[in-house]
Write a structure and sequence with these properties.
alpha/beta, eight-stranded parallel beta barrel, 9 helices, 38% helix, globular, binds (5S)-5-amino-3-OXO-hexanoic acid, binds zinc ion
Length: 279
Amino acid sequence: MTTGTLITIAPTGAESSKAAVPALPVTLDELVATAKECEALGAAIVHVHIRDAHAEPTLDQGRLRATVAALRQSTDLIVQLSSGGAVTDPESDRLAVLDAGPEMASCTMGTVNFGEDVFLNRWRFIVDLHTRMQERGIVPEYEIFDLGHLAALRRLLDKHGLPAGGHVHVDLVMGVPGGMPGTTEALVACRQAIRDLPAGTTFSATGVGRTTIDVILASLSAGGHLRVGMEDTITYAKGQRVESNMQLVARAVAFARLAQRPPATPDEARMLLGIPVRS
Ligand code: KMH
Ligand code: ZN
């Protein structure tokens, strides 16, 4: 069944520095203002990485809680905290992200080379994240950087059961140097593998760097959803820097409307993902 398009905004990430990318939202005020504007344009989910007072990536528990509270107060967006953090973050801090009580959190389904670094996701760590989210009613978004991560997800669900809410949603993160390429062919291969997951599994896709537009078009045509934002894309077109996250959401919304799959509201997204609607 084809539905409207879930649009996730990933505004900050952990990789770009504020000095190199001045438009990156790094303070709580900047993040909330960005989230509000992206919601008004059509985003339904915000994928959140936070920064400290020096604009460096952090998983500080107080800041995470304040961020969840502020986003809930100022927007109706589904707040999805990153449990991936930065490649340097210890597993204990990444697990503790769940203590901040988000509606959703990311759960990366395997280790991947990540540029010059390694994004480490051991099997036991993945199982811990998945089962803690089940216990707390936090809905995961399974992050897929390579085709084999979908096989790992099938193994996880077979051994440890469905996530909270009973619905499975994955995000294909494509074009990371070291992961799968951001191509139509790779997306179609993933879509084939998603057919081995529980019926009704949904997917979104994001193309890092210059793969962003190819991945948007491939995902929409394959019935998928979209993630965009300055976590993944800081160049809008050749020689043109991204001015703001809103510019990327506006472009994704325009593509979704052209595909006759207009943006889903946050509550439509909650219903699709098995998240209780906010009262
Ligand atoms: N920053 C990357 C190392 C996630 O948010 O769950 C990991 C990442 C995935 O961004
Ligand atoms: Zn992330």
